[in-house]
Amino acid sequence: MSKKTKKISLLQSLIPIIILVAILAYNVKIYSDEATSGPNQFALILGGVIAALIGFKLNVSYDKMMRAVSDNIKSTTSAIFILLMVGALAGTWLISGIIPTMIYYGLQILNPTFFLFSAVIISSIISLATGSSWTTTATIGIALMGIGKALGLPLGMIAGAVLSGAYFGDKMSPLSDTTNLAPAMAGTDVFTHVKYMMYTTFPSMIITLVLFIFLGFNHEGTELQDTSGLLNSISSTFKITPLLFVVPVLVIVLILKKAKPLTALFIGTVVAGIFAVIYQPHIVMNLAESKVLNFDSAYKGVLKAVISDVYIPSGNEILDENQLFSAGGMSGMLSTIWLILCAMFFGGVMQAIGALQKISDSLLSVAKSTFGLFASTTATCIFFNGTASDQYLAIVVPGKMYQKAFKDKGLAPENLSRTLEDSGTVTSILFPWNTGGAYQSKTLGVGTMEYVWYAFFNLLSPVMTLIFAAFNIKIRKLLKK
């Protein structure tokens, strides 16, 4: 006969999190950017084991904990395969000349002073059109990183601008999955949700743009002495032609036509591989270590870019010093997938033993005022991003928890849906072990701790929603019948 499960205390719920955060902080101190290459993965496993030991003490069965872990991992299946496909796409977009072509034309159009501002606007437009921050960073984001590197700007600053724009579009686009998920959890419709989000989202974006303009004017980075030298190096290494833009346009059109991201990225990878053989045969032959271009060498060269590290030297000191023309392929994404799996282990065990629910209930119990309710919802969303390591859980669980509380306070459901987006969607990238943070860090090639200070839109959004709540600005009440 199985023993009755005991209720977990708040202290027991916090112990695994406190230990995990301490180990993660120590890992960053010791390993710096390399912390996500193994140390943080082990820290998450260790945190999960500590949570499991507490679970055993409370008579939570091993099978229950493993089922929760399994369910968590299942929820990330799509993300894992998208990660692999992004690695493949980055490789083929490099050897086909797509990324170099974007950088080539970008260097002629953009200048260091207004580049960060432009990166936010460009990323916003693409993300609004596609409804996907992940697709935006995997396509135009990679190109903007390359242009920014060549302009001598810090990687964290460039990534912060790209991510600010990408998540603005992700929040505001009716095509976005989170933009549809948040109102569904709160009990309102997507268009009411989008209109109501404008009140907090536009001020956050305006402040973000002002900050990036300020950084552009004041940043004392490396100024390019000879742009023509860079352009000559790129054009002598790759065949540059506007025809290569067919591939990114194709991917964006597929997304607009509501093709699944995985499908769009796969087609973008395959077509780019074909373009590589047509437009960059010398690069394909070099990768295949062959002196002739035939089916075997073409297959080998393209597949090498799909699955493994490739680096194409240009002979230019600035370009080669930053390894601008390099990609990790599918294998380069494996450490990130490893991180996601370990995060799902920790989050699953914490969920199974009741720790996440206990902490959430404790937050809800102190939400006596209207502001307290908004603050508790915001804190819960950020908490779930940092512990359950998934932005969807950071929307779904608080959405279910607080729906009745908002109704009891006489608040319209769009208040809740807006808070879920302002706090759940955008803060996922602030945690290196969250699926969002792990993905964006790997895709853009920048450590989370490098870009987090410049992801102004993502940092401002939860603050803005609390300011509106504190001063009772645009807090819509339920209509009384």
Q: If helices are DSSP runs of H or I spanning 4 or more residues, what is the number of helices? A: 24
Strand order of the largest sheet: 1-2
Radius of gyration: 23 Å
Q: What's the β-strand tally?
A: 2
Low-confidence stretches: none
Written as H for each helix and E for each strand, in order along the chain, the element string is HHHHHHHHHHHHHHHEHEHHHHHHHH
Number of domains: 2
Q: Main beta sheet, described?
A: 2 strands, antiparallel
**Fraction of residues in β-strands:** under 5%
Mean pLDDT: 86
Q: Name the overall outline.
A: globular
Derived structural class: mainly alpha
The amount of helix comes to over 70%
Q: How far apart are the first and last residues' alpha carbons, in Å?
A: 53 Å
What would you note in describing this structure?
The chain has helices spanning 10-31, 39-57, 62-75, 77-95, 98-109, 112-130, 133-150, 155-172, 177-186, 190-218, 227-237, 246-256, 261-279, 281-288, 295-307, 317-321, 334-352, 355-365, 370-387, 393-408, 413-425, 435-444, 448-451, 456-470, and strands spanning 310-311, 326-327. It is mainly alpha-helical and 481 residues long. The protein starts with 9 loop residues before the first helix and ends in an 11-residue tail after the last helix.
